[in-house]
């Protein structure tokens, strides 16, 4: 995320208070080159009293660890690593990691694919027992 001046940050907070989340997100996007998800995360953290732009304070090792967790599909571990490094709240860390995932997927969709839904497994678990046996026999 781009760094904003204190005046710009204060202006975004004022817009949030007077005009709401959408207007504040729009203002942030106009002031930066941030994606929609990043701007939303920034504004929500700012409105929640947190420091929204903590990405610049992360060490290279922490960034590497978070990125590896995300590449391995370990979102919870990435959130934990971010919280440990920044002291951010759970909601703030979740918002940051989700915004980061959006950016990483845009930059490298092969390494950071969309998560799989797992619907096929749910359907199989809901099938009645005899139907499962018949399916198993048919596959043999």
Keywords for this entry:
mainly alpha, 140 residues, 0% strand, 70% helix
Describe the structure.
With 140 residues, the chain is mainly alpha-helical. It contains 8 helices and no strands. The chain folds into 2 domains: 1-51, no CATH class; 54-140, no CATH class. It has helices at residues 6-19, 21-31, 36-47, 60-71, 75-86, 90-107, 119-126, 129-139. Helix 1 packs antiparallel against helix 2, helix 4 runs antiparallel to helix 5 and helix 5 (75-86) packs across helix 6. The chain starts with 5 loop residues before the first helix and ends with a helix. The model has no long low-confidence stretch (mean pLDDT 79).
What structural category characterises the helix and strand content? mainly alpha
Mind summarizing the main beta sheet? none
Number of strands: 0
The overall pLDDT, averaged over residues, is: 79
Question: Helical segment tally?
Answer: 8
CA gyration radius, whole angstroms = 20 Å
Regions with pLDDT < 50 over 5+ consecutive residues? none
Distance between the first and last residues' Cα: 54 Å
Strand content: under 5%
Total domains, how many?
Answer: 2
Order of helices and strands: HHHHHHHH
Residues in helix, % = over 70%
Overall form: elongated
């Amino acid at each position: 995320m781009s760094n904003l001046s204190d005046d710009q940050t204060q202006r975004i907070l004022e817009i949030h208070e007077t005009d709401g989340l959408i207007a504040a997100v729009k203002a942030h996007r106009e002031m930066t080159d941030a994606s929609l998800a990043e701007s939303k995360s920034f504004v929500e953290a700012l409105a929640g009293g947190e420091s929204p732009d903590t990405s610049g304070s992360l060490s290279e090792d922490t960034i590497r660890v978070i990125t590896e967790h995300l590449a391995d599909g370990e979102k919870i571990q990435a959130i934990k690593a971010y919280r440990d490094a920044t002291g951010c709240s759970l909601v703030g860390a979740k918002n940051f990691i989700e915004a980061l995932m959006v950016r990483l997927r845009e930059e490298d969709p092969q390494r950071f694919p969309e998560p799989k839904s797992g619907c096929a497994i749910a359907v199989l678990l809901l099938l009645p027992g005899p139907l499962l046996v018949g399916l198993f026999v048919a596959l043999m």
